[in-house]
Write a structure and sequence with these properties.
The complex is a heterodimer. Chain A is α/β, with parallel strands linked by helices. Chain A has one domain. Chain A is 25% helix and 34% strand. Chain A contains 13 helices and 23 strands. In chain A, strands 5, 6, 8, 10, 11, 13, 15, 16, 18, 20 and 22 form an eleven-stranded mixed beta sheet that branches. In chain A, a hairpin with a 2-residue loop joins strand 3 and strand 4. The longest helix of chain A has 15 residues. Chain B has a 17-stranded mixed beta sheet that branches. Chain B has one domain. In chain B, helix 3 runs antiparallel to helix 4. By secondary structure, chain B is mostly beta strands. Chain B starts with 16 loop residues before the first helix and ends with a helix. The chains are: A alpha/beta, B mainly beta. Strand 22 of chain A pairs antiparallel with strand 16 of chain B. Chain A: One of its GO terms (biological process) is iron-sulfur cluster assembly. Chain A: Belongs to the iron-sulfur cluster assembly SufBD family. Chain A: It comes from Sphingomonas yantingensis. Chain A: InterPro entries: Fe-S_cluster_assembly_SufBD, SUF_FeS_clus_asmbl_SufB, SUF_FeS_clus_asmbl_SufBD_core, SUF_FeS_clus_asmbl_SufBD_sf, SufBD_N. Chain A: This is Fe-S cluster assembly protein SufB.
């Protein structure tokens, strides 16, 4: 792949981007690709490229062989075009510099990419090296390899390990080995198994006993090279009494080809530990006809292993052509707590099948699920959830609320909650509603001087308020803007 | 015979297919007595023994028995092709309550039924299942404009498996109300697909599943709204004792353009013992924006405050629990309009509760 081959397409893509997708652009950086296609050699290439130990390669190969025997799941309410796994690149890394000592050495193209992301939060200042900037550690994943990690020293002083997963495999093999694949087993599902075989990079976080992580951790995922699947692997372990808040946000450039993204996120919370995981996902959703766009097939799961442990998932999903994502909590610990707050917006031809699983195994475990689905255009939006109470789990409490908002009469909103209870002391409540924006609401907002789109954005933000409130401040601002932009052109 | 479904299929994951296989391979035995199964009334009465019509025991009235070749894609429904019963009513025609008793003695038996009501016709049918073995039924219902059908079905088989498949088309302003009571000892699956094809049609399907021992009962009902102003109601109650499992899956589909649909779902489960299981799946699939679809689902044990209240009024714990459980089940059974039928169903539920509690 040469730059000259990419450049004209970028120009086309940029032209097509116009105002509908502000963050659609492509950055030209020299890439080093693994050969196209997926074979054992690809897996070996990735492993060798990352200088991985023998056990890691064995693990990848085992997953790859297993994957070949598996079939893609078809139970979701999604219409997924057949994916040719041989017609994609599985590894791409920005060439140029071997290691980056300071931000000044960062590729100017990459710097500009961050600027174009237009996210007005402290990360910009952090990257620019502004004194007194709010402390947010950025482990930037540019394509597949981490090229900038900031604040590492300060984190290390607190004992926090914040590394790209490939570094962690080299530097903390025992710790990684102890937990990798323990929350999401290798054979969990088709996409997770694929990820095990070919994961390119990702993040590893370990918060030691009793430590409250001194800053919010953040990663910006960017999918940047044409035809490269991106397979992120995230592992966060919070030891006894630890606390960490992790932010994940994504945007992606305009592309014609469908891009597959099959990430795996594993969280482990031991006794009294708390993990807060927030996501804003805004990948390219495809054009009006559903051409292009990212396939987002993600496996996210948290293990609340210790007593009084707590994991909170918050997600704002506005992008991707197809979303298949169920951030879940396995509540093994006594009095452990699982939370899931979600806003999923679909417009155009987008399809989203998302929700959560709360598996209650521990006594007195509690979970809260608040899901807000907003469908517009010709899109389909499905909430799929499971609440399971094991026989030994006494005094379990669950509250589920899933609300759907339909904008227009060409879209669909679906709710598929499963409730499986095997202990009579459980108290399970489920509520759902489906509604539209009433003419009265629109009239009121518009006679106050708002135009139609501003009125819709206002009402939608009100609808999603309970979830947006859970987000860290700067994410909440970004998420509100995203909701408005995602729904542009959906009314009237 | 067609391939049976497996638990690996999403729509059959809670079904006790092992019980079905076991029931199939039992031998035919003697038939239980039919005394006490009839509800008072002079309407038509039919008896089917192992799926075979029993003319000597029947007064068929408007119901005819003939070969039926149902057009269904349902794996169990399709097996029923052969001789079955048919009720066809002309416009404005009404009949007295029709009673059908299905007696099974073991092995497997299949029977199709067809109900076709013309404009503004009105019928009420009560079906009772007793005996043993695998009993498999398909009932195809077509209601023309303004037609009204009430169905009350009780499952009282002492062992085996009962699978019922209902396929209904509900025309403009027509109404179908089906209430099921599972109070026997057989495993069961009540499988329904009701399609509201005319504007202002009403579809109701609900009931109570009472399970104990190792028993597993389930319902899997879909109501599809494809016309304007439709309404549907799915009120299901499950009571699970011992090591049993009761599963309620109810779904409302609202097609594009089926505006002003009012869909109501209420699924509630009560666990009497810590080893019992209740599964719920209240599902919505909505393609129209001006609809009212809400569902509520709860699982738990009896309300401790209510129990305390009754005990403070002098009721011992046993009867107090029974009273609250009875009220819980009554939510579903009270939907039966005919008083005589409702009382008989309530008595069956009562008998079950007396044994289980």
């Amino acid at each position: 792949m040469t730059d000259t081959a990419v450049a004209p397409k970028n120009a086309e893509a940029l032209a097509a981007a116009n105002k509908k997708y502000e963050w659609g652009f492509a950055t030209e950086v020299e890439q080093e690709f693994a050969p196209k296609g997926l074979t054992e050699d690809t897996v070996r290439y990735i492993s060798a490229k990352k200088d991985e130990p023998e056990w890691m390669l064995d693990w990848r190969l085992k997953a790859f062989r297993l994957w070949q025997t598996m079939e893609a799941p078809d139970w979701a309410k999604l219409n997924v075009p057949p994916i040719d796994y041989q017609d994609a690149y599985y590894y791409a890394e920005p060439k140029a510099k071997k290691t980056i000592a300071s931000l000044d050495e960062l590729d100017p193209e990459i710097r500009r990419t961050y600027e174009k992301l237009g996210i007005p939060i402290a990360e910009q200042e952090v990257l620019a090296g502004v004194e007194g900037a709010r402390r947010v550690a950025v482990d930037a994943v540019f394509d597949s390899v981490s090229v900038a990690t900031t604040f590492r020293k300060e984190l290390e002083a607190a004992g926090v390990i914040f590394r790209s997963i490939s570094e962690a495999i080299r530097e903390y093999p025992d710790l990684v080995r102890q937990w990798l694949g323990k929350v999401v087993p290798m054979r969990d599902n088709y996409f997770a198994t694929l990820n095990c075989a070919v994961f390119s990079d990702g993040t590893f976080v370990y918060i030691p006993e009793g430590v409250r992580c001194p800053m919010e951790l953040s990663t910006y995922f960017r999918i940047n090279a044409e035809n490269t699947g991106q397979f992120e692997r995230t592992l966060i372990v919070a030891d006894k009494g630890a606390y960490v808040s992790y932010l994940e946000g994504c945007t992606a450039p305009m592309r014609d080809e469908n891009q597959l993204h099959a990430a795996v996120v594993e969280l482990v919370a031991l006794d009294d530990a708390e993990i807060k995981y927030s996501t804003v996902q805004n990948w390219y959703p495809g054009d009006e006809n559903g051409v292009g766009g990212i396939y987002n097939f993600v496996t996210k799961r948290a293990l609340c292993q210790g007593r009084n442990s707590k994991v909170s998932w918050t997600q704002v999903e506005t992008g991707s052509a197809i979303t298949w994502k169920y951030p879940s909590c396995v509540l093994n610990g006594e009095n452990s707590v699982g939370e899931f707050y979600s806003v999923a917006v679909t417009n155009g031809r987008q399809q989203a099948d998302t929700g959560t699983k709360m598996i209650h195994n521990g006594k007195g475990s509690r979970s809260t699920i608040v899901s807000k689905g907003i469908s517009a255009g010709r899109s389909d939006n499905t909430y799929r959830g499971l609440v399971r109470v094991a026989p030994a789990a006494e005094g379990v409490r669950n509250f589920t609320q899933c609300d759907s908002l339909l904008l227009g009469d060409q879209c669909g909103a679906h709710t598929v909650p499963y409730i499986e209870v095997r202990n009579p002391s459980a108290q399970i409540e489920h509520e759902a509603s489906t509604s539209k924006i009433s003419d009265d609401q629109m009239f009121y907002a518009m006679q106050r001087g708002l135009d139609q789109e501003a009125a819709v954005a206002l009402i939608v933000n009100g609808f999603a308020k309970e979830v947006l409130q859970q987000l860290p401040m700067e994410f909440a601002v970004e998420a509100q803007k995203l909701l408005g932009i995602s729904l542009e052109g959906s009314v009237g | 015979m067609t391939q049976l479904p497996t638990n690996r299929m999403e729509a059959w994951r809670w079904t006790d297919l092992a019980a079905l296989e076991a029931a199939r391979s039992t031998d035919r035995g003697s038939a239980p007595a039919l005394d006490g199964l009839w509800i008072e009334g002079d309407g038509p009465r039919l008896v089917f023994r192992d799926g075979m019509y029993q003319p000597k025991l029947s007064t068929p009235g408007e119901v005819s028995v003939e070969a039926i070749s149902p057009a269904t894609a349902h794996p169990l429904g399709a097996v029923t092709a052969g001789d079955g019963w048919r009720l066809t009513l002309a416009a404005e025609q009404t009949v007295a309550v029709i009673q059908i008793v299905h007696v099974a003695t073991g092995g497997e038996n299949h029977l199709p039924g067809v109900i076709e009501l013309s404009r503004n016709a009105d019928a009420s049918i009560v079906e009772t299942f007793v005996g043993a073995g695998w009993t498999n039924r398909l009932t195809t219902i077509r209601l023309a404009e303004g037609a009204r059908l009430t169905r009350s079905v009780r499952l009282l088989q002492a062992s085996g498996f009962v699978s019922l498949r209902e396929e209904a088309e509900i025309g403009a302003a027509a109404s179908l109300a089906s209430i099921f009571l599972g109070a026997g000892k057989a495993a069961s699956r009540i499988d329904g697909e009701l399609v509201v094809t005319g504007d202002g049609g009403l579809a109701e399907m609900g009931g109570a599943l009472l399970t104990r021992g190792e028993q597993r009962q389930e319902c899997a009902v879909t109501v599809r709204h494809s016309a304007l102003d439709g309404a549907s109601r799915q009120i299901w109650r499950a009571v699970a004792a011992d090591r049993s499992a009761a599963s309620l899956a109810a779904r409302v589909d609202v097609a594009r353009g089926a505006q002003k649909t009012d869909g109501e779902q209420s699924l509630r489960g009560l666990l009497l013992h810590r080893t019992a299981t209740v599964n719920l799946k209240p599902e919505l699939e909505i393609f129209a924006d001006d609809v009212k679809c809400a569902h509520g689902a709860t699982v738990g044990e009896l309300d401790k405050q209510a129990l305390f209240y009754l005990q403070s009024r002098g009721l011992p714990q046993g009867p107090a629990k029974a009273m609250l459980t009875r009220a819980f089940v009554a939510d579903a059974i009270d939907r039966i309009e005919d008083e005589a039928v409702r009382e008989v169903f309530a008595a069956d539920a009562e008998a079950w509760l007396n044994e289980a509690l």
